[in-house]
Design a protein that fits this description.
Helix 1 runs antiparallel to helix 2. The protein is of the alpha+beta class. A five-stranded antiparallel beta sheet has the order 1-5-4-3-2, covered by helices on one side. Strands 6-7-8 form a three-stranded antiparallel beta sheet, covered by helices on one side. The chain is built from three helices and eight strands. The chain is elongated, with a radius of gyration of 23 Å.
């Protein structure tokens, strides 16, 4: 198994790509929706804060501002975590998995496609996991996907590697 550093993010070989997939988490919150949620929450908090000022409880108004700030920070973190993604690149000579975090950190690992084992563990008490294993090393992929999408991805990878092995046997 070949590990690629953050500086050398990709491998350039003359090998033909058999399968390529970009995996992203579900991002249901776009910029417009974010604006409307924060704006609506801010407007409601401001209105309630004015109500408290009118009845004489003016210190409460500041807590409404803190609430808006905390909700804003929480939504920004959720939005930023949705920016991470993974790429799977399968060719005759390697299966490269590249994981890019929301901060831009890049980790890439290469596996020999003829030796890699794809394991999908469906847990009742633990979260489901999809792992690639080869030569004593393992890598969890698609940790942000639902169980159904992980299973679908595992089946796709099994199918593509099976095709690759059949092509190799015919050579």
């Amino acid at each position: 198994m070949k590990k690629i550093s953050q500086d050398n993010g990709s491998i350039s070989t003359g090998s033909k790509t058999q399968f390529y997939k970009v995996i992203r988490p579900n991002q249901s919150l776009n910029d417009r929706t974010f604006f409307w949620i924060i704006g609506g929450f801010g407007l409601a908090s401001f209105g309630l804060g004015i109500g408290f000022i009118i009845v004489g409880a003016w210190p409460v108004f500041g807590f409404f501002g803190v609430d808006i700030l905390l909700v804003y920070i929480a939504f920004r973190r959720i939005y930023r975590s949705g920016e991470k993604y993974e790429t799977l690149h399968l060719s005759r000579t390697f299966l490269q998995v590249e994981q890019i975090s929301s901060k831009g950190n890049r980790v890439a690992k290469c596996f020999n496609p003829y030796w890699v084992i794809i394991e999908f563990h469906q847990g009742s008490r633990t979260r489901d996991s999809l792992c690639l294993r080869s030569h004593g090393e393992s890598l969890e992929i698609a940790s942000f996907l639902s169980a159904d999408r992980k299973k679908e991805l595992a089946n796709q990878l099994h199918s593509e590697i099976r095709k690759l092995k059949c092509e190799y046997k015919q050579l």
